[in-house]
Amino acid sequence: MRLGHSVEVVRAAEGALMARLPEGTLMQRAVAGLAAVCTQVLDGVYGARVVVLAGSGDNGGDALFAGARLARRGAGVTAVLLTPDRAHAGGLAALRAAGGRVVGVEDGPAVIARAALVLDGITGIGGKGGLRARAVPLAEAAHRSRAAVVAVDLPSGVDADTGEVHGAAVRADVTVTFGTHKPAHLIDPAAEFAGVTHFVDIGLGPELAGPVLEALQHADVAALLPRPAGESDKYRRGVIGVVAGSRRYPGAAVLAVSGALRGAAGGVRYVGPVGDAVLARHPETMVSSGSPHQAGRVQAWAVGPGLGDGADARAAVAEVLASDVPVLVDADGLRLMDPETVRGRTAPTLLTPHAGEAAALLGWAREDVEARRLTAVRTLAERLRVTVLLKGSTTLIADPDPDVPVRANPTGVSWLATAGSGDVLSGITGSLLAGSLPTRDAASCGAYLHGLAARVARGPLSALDVADAVPEAWRSVYV
Ligand SMILES: NC(=O)C1=CN([C@@H]2O[C@H](COP(=O)(O)OP(=O)(O)OC[C@H]3O[C@@H](n4cnc5c(N)ncnc54)[C@H](O)[C@@H]3O)[C@@H](O)[C@H]2O)[C@@H](O)CC1
Ligand SMILES: [K+]
């Protein structure tokens, strides 16, 4: 599991560890890891042109010391000091001693244009607000140049704790993070500015208090997914009820069922007006056209995709929410549901909105949800006292208990932004709920498998391709 810690927790851990170590040890551990990544990124260190952008804090110190190491190995290193009178003294001395040269901010863009590598040490976890005006032309020059941009700890300008980006920020190809990940490495928009993240262990682990964020990896998902035992039957494995689709949107029913069949459930009941379309594609489905309570026993419901606005749809959503089994609500279901009923449920509820649907439920603008994903998902979960899976470029899952870490899904790819892909996710995730996974685990495993399936299917894909690739994704997490 990858963990994301808050700046406050990182600082406390660093303080505790530093108190037991000779001065400068932690920074030199960070610098050794940083210089090693720079060496990998450069096509040969000797003679390479390297530019170090150094701010006034320890982040600048890391960058200057790494620049010194590269200079000692024959790189031509130029430091651009943002605040020359407040640059990190030790780092600057090391750089000068190694033969590095120093220029002012005005000369920055010209040296960046000729560089093979730009090291961004303007700000790290101490950065507040976006980049200051003086730094903006440097960030732009780095983005324009052919240089590889390596961010020290964080791309300068992003908010470490929230992944928000206020104003300009450095766009990195690689970010080298020290001690642990911070939310900015795992949540968009900041994660997009970070590029590929490299983790450097500086020994902080044992000192770190609880994370604010978790990102599951293969082994975590493999441990959570149920494996049918020898004596399993369909009810022991769980039956999922899918309430989706309408005469106008029959495809949503087919897609949600195709996801549900690839989750953990031993059987899928479809309830709605387009059972024929579902059966034509998936003959193993148990279909009925009455109301949900007449459909027979289920261990969880997934309700909402393609329901439209009709009175029947609204009644079906209310009926499902009145049940005492876990319910996943998606798409039209999110508009048709009564928030008070949702808040009052005793069985688990999982909402799976995209940014627009979350915005409607929160009364925010859609852009605000996209810019402040962590706050949005937490606020909605706390307000409605449910688990919320906020879909998007980085899918986040928040528990109603604010002390439980938010999960960030690492497998998403942009090919998933295709019509009907959310319906498949509802099916998979609802099926995991029916298979008795706890709500947060069902949501995170569902998002994980869904993203992985899109990667397995590769390239431009339809929602059905995603559903069809889920079994292979499922198998791949076990190895
Ligand atoms: N905390 C840790 O465990 C470790 C920290 N290290 C490094 O130290 C960094 C933190 O150092 P600091 O606490 O000195 O903080 P930073 O170096 O991140 O930034 C603080 C400085 O930047 C200025 N500043 C703040 N916002 C700015 C903005 N928007 N534009 C321009 N300047 C701005 C402040 O006036 C302050 O002088 C980490 O990110 C990491 O790179 C590593 O050396 C090793 C271990
Ligand atoms: K930085």
From TrEMBL:
Keyword line: ATP-binding, Isomerase, Lyase, Metal-binding, Multifunctional enzyme, NAD, NADP, Nucleotide-binding, Potassium
Domain called YjeF C-terminal: residue spans: 217-477
Signal sequence bounds: none
Residues that coordinate or bind (6S)-NADPHX: 58-62, 124-130, 153, 252, 306, 354, 423
Top-rank lineage group of the source organism: Bacteria
Key word NADP present: yes
InterPro entries the record matches: CARKD, Nnr, Ribokinase-like, YjeF_N_dom, YjeF_N_dom_sf
Ranges where the YjeF N-terminal domain occurs: 10-210
EC number: 4.2.1.136, 5.1.99.6
Residues binding K(+): N59, D120, S156
Free-text remark on how the cofactor is bound: Binds 1 potassium ion per subunit.
Function: Catalyzes the epimerization of the S- and R-forms of NAD(P)HX, a damaged form of NAD(P)H that is a result of enzymatic or heat-dependent hydration. This is a prerequisite for the S-specific NAD(P)H-hydrate dehydratase to allow the repair of both epimers of NAD(P)HX. Catalyzes the dehydration of the S-form of NAD(P)HX at the expense of ADP, which is converted to AMP. Together with NAD(P)HX epimerase, which catalyzes the epimerization of the S- and R-forms, the enzyme allows the repair of both epimers of NAD(P)HX, a damaged form of NAD(P)H that is a result of enzymatic or heat-dependent hydration.
Binding partners and assembly: Homotetramer.
Name of the molecule in the record: Bifunctional NAD(P)H-hydrate repair enzyme
